[in-house]
Specification:
The structure holds two protein chains of two kinds.
Chain A: H1 15-18, H2 27-30, H3 72-80, H4 84-97, H5 101-112, H6 143-146, E1 153-154, E2 161-162, H7 180-200, H8 207-225, H9 235-250, E3 260-265, E4 271-284, E5 291-308, E6 312-326, E7 333-345, E8 360-377
Parallel strand pairs in A: 3-4, 4-5, 5-8, 6-8
Antiparallel strand pairs in A: 1-2, 6-7
Chain B: H1 8-29, H2 36-65
The chains are: A alpha/beta, B mainly alpha.
Chain lengths: 380, 76
């Protein structure tokens, strides 16, 4: 609205000075909304009411101006009169902590919330009320306009727009769109891809390095955005990336060679280690001979199911970046950064008696980036 | 990209993520380790604090501007 300092409804100080001696001299006195003063008989739209201040509460609609995916968060933020970026961060955090359930709510909102219409208002309709309407008569109105034409005229010297507008932007932008966020996100993706290429070419690069570098680029973009451009929404992808970083850190020794898919591991020796990039793994301890054994397991993303025979015990030293632990006889635990040190027996231990006697004792070191660890008592 | 007043939310978030990324890069190349249990609470406290500070500041600005009845967007 900066290009239109003269709001309709206000007395137009410069209106009189713009009118030529030849025009009707009433413009200055009639003031706001009296366009009839400078072109008698012309078919101008009726005087516009004074502009309403932006409503305190905008209707709940998907935003057209403030949109990252579909404008749901932008529209909700406009409706609640809060910062859209903050709302988006809350949504991302809540999505992470609800295990993605909020994605469904988002899709539902996308479906149910109407889009903000793109305004194309017919000429002369009451809705065309105008942010660009003006009062007072310019001296050099084109003949077609002065004769009652319906065209729009832009004063070349002042940039003022005269005549009924054909399109009204609901909320004109007040600052240039910043591409810092997209530049940063693209650079982060490219950096990750570059490291992936290096990894494929044989350079040993762990997932932790890749995800950390991506997070570093996102963080650098945010730092730039503190002074130049706008990129607050990068916080959302950075939070997601942080999850991956933590997952990778929990399994920092994972290499791409460990593969993906379903695995069944049946250790038979005293010391064995297994790793899986992504997928579901079953660690079957039933074939272990009597005695002590050490088993190391690391999984990038997925689940580990430990089958524990009745005559064995397993002492678990585990860490899970984000996910769930389900041990027999205990409430499942879920969260971020889970660490555990627990001993599970093949048969339930009496509440206040001695621990069951077992012939096989396993030390299990389990590292899972994202996923679940479950111990099941095997029946046979 | 236009220069603007210092954006504290971006600054704090950028610092947090940059420091964490550098920390985890160190973890990747050295024997250091970061206790993952502290990471998320720290991140949430930093972001939440920045959000609260910004919202309070914006609220003050809004209250100052309201009597003038000038839409906030007309400043530039």
């Amino acid at each position: 609205m900066t290009e239109n300092p003269t709001l309709p409804g206000e007395p137009a100080d410069d209106a009189g000075s713009q009118s030529t001696p030849g025009s009707s001299g009433t413009t200055g006195q009639t003031g706001a909304g009296q366009p009839g003063g400078y072109a008698p008989g012309a078919s101008y739209p009726p005087p516009y009411p004074p502009p309403a201040y932006p409503p305190v509460r905008r209707p709940l609609r998907r935003s057209r101006n403030d949109r990252v995916i579909s404008g749901v968060c932008g529209g909700l933020a406009e409706n609640l009169a809060i910062d859209a970026t903050l709302l988006r961060i809350l949504v991302v955090v809540a999505t992470v902590f609800t295990g993605g359930a909020l994605i469904l709510a988002y899709l539902l909102a996308w479906l149910l919330m109407p889009d903000t219409p793109a305004y194309v208002v017919p000429v002369g309709s009451p809705q065309a009320a105008p942010q660009y309407a003006t009062v007072g008569g310019p001296s050099d109105v084109p003949a077609s306009y002065a004769a009652g034409g319906t065209g729009t005229y832009i004063d070349p010297s002042t940039g003022q727009v005269y005549g009924p507008p054909v399109a009204v932007a609901p909320q004109p932008r007040t600052e240039p769109r910043s591409y810092l966020g997209w530049i940063t996100l693209s650079a982060a993706i490219a950096a990750g891809g570059l490291l992936g290429i290096l990894g494929a070419a044989g350079v040993s690069i762990s997932g932790l390095v890749v995800s950390s570098v991506i997070l570093l680029v996102l963080g650098a973009g945010l730092l730039v955005g503190a002074w130049r451009g706008r990129a607050r929404w990068l916080i959302a992808p950075a939070l997601v990336m942080l999850l991956f970083v933590q997952g990778a850190a929990a399994v920092s020794d994972i290499r791409t060679g460990s593969g993906a898919g379903d695995r069944t591991w049946v250790p038979t020796g005293a010391s064995q280690s297994y790793s899986l990039g992504a997928g579901s793994a079953t660690l079957d301890l039933r074939k272990l001979p009597a005695g002590d054994a050490n088993v190391d397991v690391s999984i990038g993303a997925g689940e580990l199911i430990v089958l524990l025979p009745a005559d064995a015990s397993v002492r678990i030293d585990g860490s899970i970046g984000a996910g769930e632990v389900d041990l027999p006889g205990k409430e499942p635990q879920s969260g971020v950064g889970l660490n555990m040190d627990a001993t599970v027996f093949g048969i339930p231990a009496p509440a206040d008696g001695p621990d069951p006697v077992t012939t096989t004792n396993v030390d299990l070191t389990a590292q899972i980036g994202l996923g679940t660890l479950e111990v099941r008592r095997a029946t046979s | 990209m236009r220069r603007h007043d210092l954006d504290w939310v971006s600054l704090i978030a950028g610092l947090v993520f940059t420091v964490l990324a550098l920390g985890y890069l160190l973890v990747a190349v050295t024997d250091l380790s970061i206790d993952g249990r502290f990471v998320w609470p720290v991140v949430l406290v930093a972001l939440g604090g920045a959000g609260v500070a910004t919202a309070v500041k914006a609220n003050q600005r809004e209250e100052q501007q309201f009597p003038a009845r000038v839409p906030a967007d007309d400043q530039i």
